[in-house]
Write a structure and sequence with these properties.
Distance between the termini: 27 Å
Shape: globular
Number of strands: 5
Low-confidence stretches: none
Largest sheet: 5 strands, parallel
Radius of gyration: 15 Å
Helix content: 40-55%
Mean pLDDT: 94
Order of helices and strands: EHEHEHEHEH
Length: 156
């Protein structure tokens, strides 16, 4: 199974970027993993929040294939503990050819992206910056991989 993290906008913080790239490389030892950045929209001051979500949504949808299992990282999604995420990922590995996780822009997702998604996951009840959530997510995905393999990274 191929796994991809699709993100709207580049990661500006060099420390977060270093961590994201480190965990992405580690994940690559367990499964094919790719980070894809959708460029930030230009002239967003002229756009309403809904217009911005709509424009970003169109760019997100262009990146998806019909057979993809699409999981939005969204504050309204289900929350899983790390062990539960590992079990969830293991089930997806058995049925999905390509699993695509999506981190949207600052205002969330358009209705069309929500309609296309298969599932929504929340990383926490806390609010994280869009920059930080990328690092938190790839660390949790790496953690899930090590749990699946029975490696000692995660401790109960």
């Amino acid at each position: 199974m191929k796994t991809e993290l699709l993100m709207v906008g580049r990661t500006a913080n060099k420390h977060f970027l270093a961590g994201i790239n480190d965990y992405a490389e580690r994940i690559g030892h367990y499964m094919p993993f790719e980070l894809t950045v959708i460029p930030e929209l230009k002239n967003t001051k002229k756009l309403s929040e809904d217009q911005q979500k709509q424009a970003e949504g169109e760019l997100i949808l262009r990146q998806l294939q019909p057979s993809d299992v699409v999981v939005l990282l969204d504050e309204h999604g289900i929350e899983l503990r790390s062990m539960e995420l590992a079990a969830w990922l293991q089930k997806k590995q058995a049925v999905a050819r390509r699993l695509v996780f999506v981190i949207g822009g600052p205002y969330g997702f358009s209705p069309q992206v929500y309609a296309r998604a298969n599932e929504q996951l929340s990383l926490s009840r806390l609010t994280f910056s869009h920059q930080m959530v990328r690092l938190v997510f790839v660390e949790q995905l790496y953690r899930a991989c090590t749990i699946i393999k029975g490696e000692p990274y995660h401790h109960e």
